[in-house]
Design goal:
mainly alpha, about 75% helix, elongated, transmembrane, transmembrane helix, membrane
Length: about 60
């Protein structure tokens, strides 16, 4: 599996926006924050893992 620049950009945006929401939930710690933190943290971590380990194609 290789990443095109378009897919890599999309994954970067997913990582940034989901990571920000994870951090917001972690800081607020309102009722049900753990479930929301997991629901935002898992996509951010998955996007980071793909960006870190999948090779890029020169586009």
């Amino acid at each position: 599996m290789t990443l095109t620049p378009l897919w890599a950009t999309g994954l970067l945006l997913v990582m940034v926006f989901c990571g920000r929401q994870f951090r917001e939930n972690w800081k607020a710690q309102e009722s049900g924050w753990v479930r929301r933190a997991w629901s935002w943290g898992l996509p951010a971590a998955a996007a980071f893992a793909v960006l870190a380990f999948a090779p890029f194609t020169g586009g």
